[in-house]
Amino acid sequence: MSPILYLLLASYSLLAAGKQCANVTVPVNIQARQALFNVPALHGNADATYFAQLFTNIGRNYTDDALAGYQSVTGTYEISAKFCHPDRGTGGNGTVQFLIHGMGFDKSYWDLPFNNYNYSYIDLAVDKYGFCTVSIDRLGIGNSSHADPLNVVQAPAEVSAIYEITKMLRGGTFPGVTAKFHKVAHVGHSFGSVQSYMLSALDPSVSDALVLTGWSNNHTWLPQTLADWNIHLARLNQPLRFGSPALDFVSTLLAKPNVPSNSRPDLVAVLSKAFQDLGVDLDNDDLWEIIATTEIGDIINGANDTVPPVPQDLPSGYVTWSDYTANQFAFLTPPFFDPAIGLFAESTKQPVTLGEIFTLGNGAPETTPFTGPVLVFTGRQDAIYCGGDCLAAGGDSDSIPEQARTAFPNARSFEVYIQPDIGHGISFHYNSTAAYEVIQKWLVQQGLGGSYM
Ligand SMILES: *[C@@H]1O[C@H](CO)[C@@H](O)[C@H](O)[C@H]1NC(C)=O
Ligand SMILES: *[C@@H]1O[C@H](CO)[C@@H](O)[C@H](O)[C@H]1NC(C)=O
Ligand SMILES: *[C@@H]1O[C@H](CO)[C@@H](O)[C@H](O)[C@H]1NC(C)=O
Ligand SMILES: *[C@@H]1O[C@H](CO)[C@@H](O)[C@H](O)[C@H]1NC(C)=O
Ligand SMILES: *[C@@H]1O[C@H](CO)[C@@H](O)[C@H](O)[C@H]1NC(C)=O
Ligand SMILES: *[C@@H]1O[C@H](CO)[C@@H](O)[C@H](O)[C@H]1NC(C)=O
Ligand SMILES: *[C@@H]1O[C@H](CO)[C@@H](O)[C@H](O)[C@H]1NC(C)=O
Ligand SMILES: *[C@@H]1O[C@H](CO)[C@@H](O)[C@H](O)[C@H]1NC(C)=O
Asked: Does the C-beta of 262 come closer than 6 Å to ligand 6?
């Protein structure tokens, strides 16, 4: 082989090793007709708990009680997106996968940096299967516009944003991407699956395939999930990420000489001393356990001596589950995950809005006229959509997600895959990439492959 050809080949394979991604802020004109809710302002965590008490009360429909009317929401909002393509280009005829995260996370759910990205959906889809992907922070979440949490950030407005971005991908007007994608597959997780479903009902022609992960259409376990979450105001739960930058609390916390500003082990030392002063000797393992698995870990999360935190200053209608243990109950099934990724998930979690809680289980039509192929892909141990066992369908159907078949009367095909040994937060479990490989193969089988294989 000529040295030059060899060099070319060598550099090609080097390049072939990595996806190419860009962060893009997409201005989107949203247009949605949705509920106008009236609920008492949440002043603190106890008010958030009262909201959950009313919401889960067996004797009432709090969504209906809070419903004050309907309204049109219009306006331009910013959606933070990440566009990735194989290093051989964006193609033009391949499929772009539109990845829509669920509650409590953001677009990084699809590309977790944990353990050198070895849990990454995007690495698999782009590097191994040659797909382009676009993953967004849903409206209100992460780096997207933090709009009114009760009456703007609801499912219909978020679906509108997804609709507009889908049209940009098809029309070659997505910022920085000139390719016109003829095929868009919507891949959701949990609330992102709910929204993909709603999108397909809004305009069935806008999607070429639906992959609904972490989903069933059985809402039996939503109240138990809200109860588990023990919701607190996001700004109080992780003040350094979600609180007010003006709060003296932040600067005071960082300035206090005896309060650790940069690491949890420091806090172990501080707490250890405090307990000793009170005459109680707790060993470091117990102290670490207290910090890591309770809200204490959340309260100091984001502290960093060298890079000051930039809290998002979220209003009180942005809430989050209380701590690591609440996260585990809803999203993580032992022993199928690494506790370290659980801590990572807790430290990078995102809030949920009251408008989202109201519209998670309300407002989606019972059926969608969608005609393309549908894959429902849910971990067998999913707590939120299967109550912990998707196969416990009581004999009426093969699985709980299978009950959704009737919602897709016109679909070209409807398949359910129950992934063993994985809970609701699929990306956080050991076998996530093998699970995600099933999805890539399914898309290819449907004739919706990437540009480059
Ligand atoms: C995109 O944003 C993420 C999160 O801030 C950052 O880690 C990453 O380096 C950015 N990527 C590019 C290509 O700028
Ligand atoms: C609760 O009220 C909402 C709003 O009126 C309605 O859409 C929903 O169907 C009701 N849920 C039940 C279970 O009746
Ligand atoms: C896309 O398909 C058209 C028609 O088959 C073809 O002319 C064009 O070269 C293809 N583009 C790419 C980037 O493959
Ligand atoms: C990532 O790497 C860890 C440690 O090597 C391994 O235990 C885990 O199964 C891997 N996860 C995935 C999704 O490949
Ligand atoms: C977040 O959004 C701002 C503008 O809204 C933008 O300047 C910044 O690059 C974005 N960061 C990421 C990680 O997308
Ligand atoms: C603080 O932030 C810097 C830059 O992002 C990072 O390298 C460092 O690990 C952080 N320190 C802690 C204690 O998290
Ligand atoms: C949800 O699934 C359970 C268990 O299979 C079943 O008993 C119940 O009827 C289902 N509910 C709905 C609304 O389909
Ligand atoms: C991992 O997931 C794949 C795809 O569903 C499955 O075939 C395999 O049995 C799983 N492995 C384990 C150890 O659960």
From this structure: yes
